[in-house]
Amino acid sequence: MNAAAALRARMATSFVARRGFSTTRAQLGSPYHYAEGPRSNIPFNPHTRFFAVRYWSFMIAGFGAPFAIAVWQTNKTR
């Protein structure tokens, strides 16, 4: 039983070793491959003027909206 398991394991590793995996280099001229690097995968430009003000106002509004809605719903008259 042990010999059969060892033979099966040895055959499995030799099968995997024979497979040839290869990939092609990403071509930058293709519309399906984009530039790589820092800040290339975000949909906005952090180097613009007043970016920090717009960022923090968006974060405060997005995080504060559920709490503001909860307070408004709690305090409104029925």
From TrEMBL:
Check the record and name the SUPFAM superfamilies matching this protein: Mitochondrial cytochrome c oxidase subunit VIIc (aka VIIIa)
Biological-process GO terms, alphabetical = mitochondrial electron transport, cytochrome c to oxygen
Q: Which GO terms describe its cellular component?
A: mitochondrial inner membrane; respiratory chain complex IV
**Keyword Lipoprotein, does the record have it?**
no
What are the entry keywords?
Answer: Membrane, Mitochondrion, Mitochondrion inner membrane, Transit peptide, Transmembrane, Transmembrane helix
* Compartments where located: Mitochondrion inner membrane
- For the keyword Calcium, the answer is no
- Functional pathway: Energy metabolism; oxidative phosphorylation
Q: Which residues cross the membrane?
A: 53-72
Q: Which Gene3D superfamilies match?
A: Cytochrome c oxidase subunit VIIc
Major subcellular location class: mitochondrion
Q: How does it sit in the membrane?
A: Single-pass membrane protein
Q: What is this protein's function per UniProt? A: Component of the cytochrome c oxidase, the last enzyme in the mitochondrial electron transport chain which drives oxidative phosphorylation. The respiratory chain contains 3 multisubunit complexes succinate dehydrogenase (complex II, CII), ubiquinol-cytochrome c oxidoreductase (cytochrome b-c1 complex, complex III, CIII) and cytochrome c oxidase (complex IV, CIV), that cooperate to transfer electrons derived from NADH and succinate to molecular oxygen, creating an electrochemical gradient over the inner membrane that drives transmembrane transport and the ATP synthase.
Oligomer and partners: Component of the cytochrome c oxidase (complex IV, CIV), a multisubunit enzyme composed of a catalytic core of 3 subunits and several supernumerary subunits. The complex exists as a monomer or a dimer and forms supercomplexes (SCs) in the inner mitochondrial membrane with ubiquinol-cytochrome c oxidoreductase (cytochrome b-c1 complex, complex III, CIII).
Spell out the protein name for this chain.
Cytochrome c oxidase subunit 8, mitochondrial
Origin species, per record, is Aspergillus wentii DTO 134E9
